[in-house]
Amino acid sequence: MAYFLLTLNLAVLILSFYLFFTRNKLKTVLTEKNKLDREIYLLNLEKIALDGVLQAIDDGVIITSIDGNIEMVSKKALDLLKADLSHLKDRPIDSIISVDSTRNKLFTQDETKLSLTTGEVILAKVSSLPILTEGEVRGTIYTIHDITKEKEFEEMKLDFVTMAAHQLRTPLTLLRSYLSVLSGRILTKLKKDDKLYLDRSIQGANQLSSLIENLINITHIENRLSMQIKQLQIASLVTDVVYSLNVIGKEKGIKIKIHKEDSLPLVPGDPYLITQVLNNLIVNAIEHSNKGRNIDISIRNSPNEITVDVKDYGEGIPYEATKHLFEKFYQAPSHLEAGSKGQGLGLYISKKIIEAHKGKIWVNSIQGRGSTFSFSLPAYQIHPPNQLG
After folding, report:
1. pTM for this entry
2. Has domain 60-147 been given CATH number 3.90.1170.20?
């Protein structure tokens, strides 16, 4: 009997220990379950928030897995692509957007053609951002901005500018001709004030003519018209432009000096357009040079390219202004104060022309010491560029 009671007590003790450890283990399991439930709850909240953000963004958003298959598509993207989620889900992103080797990388395509399921084609700006977790790429976020209407409006605007400029060109040419004839016939007979009025009329007509020509040039450039590519001797073009502008320089007592290296290679380019760039830069240098100072033009041979520097010794340009000089209609404050009558288009046009030739253009300036405008063009290639843009 005593043995039975001892055995029973031992069994009860073992059972008590078992229940104690089981209860603790159960508490641990319940705690882990609560943590897991909370994490699931938080993940659901994040998903709801992400869905809300995706639907609020004006651009279309597509999220892909690391292998490039579509995981999530915003409503805006579905509307833009005119597709159902079932049609896009798990499809490779390459079937919609041409991403090539840019998958899982940060990139932007300014103008991409997207083919819709309806057969339509739209123009879009596409950007991507890799999704990183602990430094590893887990997928990619793509944003799609439809620019079709923007491009259509831009073309309408350019067409209007071209039409208006051409309509104004003919009567303005007649006006300039008549003013020139009138000036030649009666200038010596006019009083001092009348001469001033006539001179200002001629000057205003010339400025308006220059503005119209610049607007036409911008239209040509922004419409990406074909260029007439030839093998160019840059030094010869510089010499011709300087010869034609020497008269203007002499009025301010300015000498234009050319410094060139020997054996310069040929450059592929449109002679008319490159001449226009040289003309813009040298005229600017003359206008903003101090009287009696020289203008130095250097032509240098760099590896695989030719560089032209146009240096003046005028008032210089504020550093902050140099960042905006090549923007459309921008004029540096110092130039405006000096009474410059330009339209802020010459440098913009020059930049577009140089970039169309796969070149670069820039400026270095120190206030009170002058400015150097430079551009470089690639040396002659077997397959030169044949279009603007």
Report:
1. 0.55
2. no
